[in-house]
Write a structure and sequence with these properties.
The chain has 237 residues and is α/β, with parallel strands linked by helices. It has two domains: 3-98 and 224-236, Rossmann fold (3-Layer(aba) Sandwich), CATH 3.40.50; 100-223, Rossmann fold. The protein is 50% helix and 17% strand. The chain contains ten helices and eight strands. The strands form two sheets. It has a four-stranded parallel β-sheet, with helices on both faces. A four-stranded parallel β-sheet has the order 6-5-7-8, sandwiched between helices.
Length: 237
């Protein structure tokens, strides 16, 4: 029997949903079908706490207008401690995962105790918000967390700004993360759903800074792909 799951994009930008669809379908296990929902009443991108809460409220109102009972699980595709994750969990006993939380748990599973994970994200405000989110999720100031570096671009700008500017901004954030943590960094999380197709730039920068062998050994964690593979297993538990 086909397992039907729903990916929720809490912002209104349909081009981001298209990118999510490509990543999820490439990572989708056999016997699983994902549908995709765009919150057309939400902000174009989620850039801070006010737009995060706005997107949660409008998205939940929109989801109430459709039948979601046919879905066995849900992915909230915003890289933040997004309130929609907890709201959905109060309304259903089916698994609900956020790509932010999935990326953190993935790092903890794959990294040796001596290694750290860091996050490369968008606007500068996410340095504080994601750090707070990691500490809240783990319940501690984890020694495994290497911090957040940002590009200064919004999620929309990642795909609308000139390609070379995007490349320079991402490379700069990755370099700062690597240089601040030296040989301790073992994984870099792509800290925005809109970064799902930009992992090549991250990998190239790791190799440039660390060399071919060590740079190729850094795990690059796409929370969207990780969630697409994790959720079916949670449903079947």
């Amino acid at each position: 029997m086909l397992l039907k799951l729903l990916v929720v994009n809490p912002n209104s930008t349909t081009s981001m949903t298209d990118k999510l669809e490509a990543v999820v379908n490439a990572s989708c296990p056999p016997g699983v079908h994902y549908d995709f929902f765009t919150n057309t009443d939400g902000p174009p991108s989620i850039n801070d706490e006010p737009t995060s809460h706005q997107s949660a409220e409008t998205c939940m109102a929109a989801l109430r207008r459709i039948d979601i009972t046919c879905y066995r699980g849900f992915i909230v595709a915003c890289y933040s401690a997004h309130p929609l994750v907890d709201i959905l969990k109060l309304l259903t006993n089916k698994p609900v995962v956020g790509i932010f939380e999935v990326s953190i748990t993935t790092c903890l599973h794959i990294l040796a105790r001596s290694k750290k994970f860091g996050i490369v994200s968008t606007g500068h405000i996410w340095e504080r918000l994601l750090t707070e989110g990691v500490n809240h999720f783990l319940g501690v100031h984890s020694a495994h967390f290497a911090g957040v570096q940002t590009t200064g671009l919004t999620a929309v700008e990642l795909h609308q700004a000139p390609q070379e500017e995007v490349r320079v901004r991402i490379r700069g954030a990755v370099k700062r993360l690597l240089e601040a943590n030296h040989s301790q960094l073992g994984a870099i999380c792509l800290g925005c759903a809109a970064m799902a197709d930009l992992d090549t730039i991250v990998r190239e920068t790791c190799i440039e800074v660390l060399g071919e062998v060590e740079g190729s050994g850094i795990h690059i964690i796409d929370g969207v792909a990780a969630a697409a593979q994790l959720l079916p297993g949670l449903v079947r538990c």
